[in-house]
Amino acid sequence: MDRRFFIEKTALAAGAFLLSRKIESANRLQNLVDDKPQLKLSYNNDRKFKIVQFTDIHWKSAVPQSQEAVDCMNNVLDIEKPDLIFYTGDHVTGEPVAEGIDAILEPAVTHNIPFAVVLGNHDDELSMDRKAIYNQIRNLPGNLTSRVEGITGTTNFAIPIYQSSSERIMTVLYGFDSNRDSIESDQVNWYNKTSKEFTKINKENPIPSLAFFHIPLPEFREAIVDLDARFYGTRKEKVACASRNTGLFNAFKKNGDVMAVIVGHDHLNDYVVCWKEIMLCYGRVTGSRKTSHYNHPDGSNGARVIELTEGERGFESWIRLRTGEKIKPFIYPFDFIDK
């Protein structure tokens, strides 16, 4: 809300009351996260907001082919010019880890693009634990990764995207730490609480949202064997999903805000499938063929690109390869509903 306009057009007493309600809501949201970054994301003047997902980089400083991942990221960023980069796990799998973290995040920093990071199952297997990795990431320019104290995992956070011309929140991006296997019940509880707060400040209307993490939910496996589910992309390996179902997908359905889940983990998959009106999306492996062991029939490593439009519950998505080729575009929900 524009405060000058508000004061000019309304009584001061009413203005003070409504402003106090807004501050109260903002404080409730602030209390849901710890160490919240100060950067603010907004839709552009053309009402667009573009996200690039990099996943499964598996950087190893001792392996020269790791540079293919950095080349891929730089090429994709040069072409797409996104508003945000989301790194979705299994980033560095060789010593020295700290050097590897700097190497994989350098494309974001040098392009001056905000970024967020969630961790994968391999990220803390070497000399740095999850908290140490987070502490290194949090000091880099452009970082939007934050954490919530008192729940499982290190990289759990919610990032609002504001309207281009106001302080209204139009979209929420959730990051979850999928740990070594599963997102735990206390993380689901945190999401439920956060989602309800966002809905409350939006006059009880769920805010369209996306969720990013590393390990697929069990629903990815259920969806791909359903012959009625609409599927698009490459499937070259079985779903290696969480071993336990802690109810996150059902929470997404109940709260009515999350329209897509974007993951990594299974290097040979880049497909999407519409399951109970939620898009389940794999990213495209970003790491080198040597370190990430992929063998896609349609080319090189790459990234998933997601473009949102302000005020619309839906998005466009495609894969951008390291070579520059754009493949597998779709529009949700248009391409996945009966016409």
UniProtKB/TrEMBL annotation:
- The Calcineurin-like phosphoesterase domain extends over 49-267
- Entry's Pfam families? Metallophos
Which Gene3D superfamilies does the record match to this protein? 3.60.21.10
InterPro entries associated with the record = Calcineurin-like_PHP, Metallo-depent_PP-like
Q: Which GO terms describe its cellular component?
A: cytoplasm
Q: From the UniProt record, which GO molecular function terms apply? A: hydrolase activity, acting on ester bonds
Which SUPFAM superfamilies did the record assign? Metallo-dependent phosphatases (SSF56300)
This chain belongs to which protein, by name? Calcineurin-like phosphoesterase domain-containing protein
Instruction: Record the organism.
Output: Petrimonas mucosa
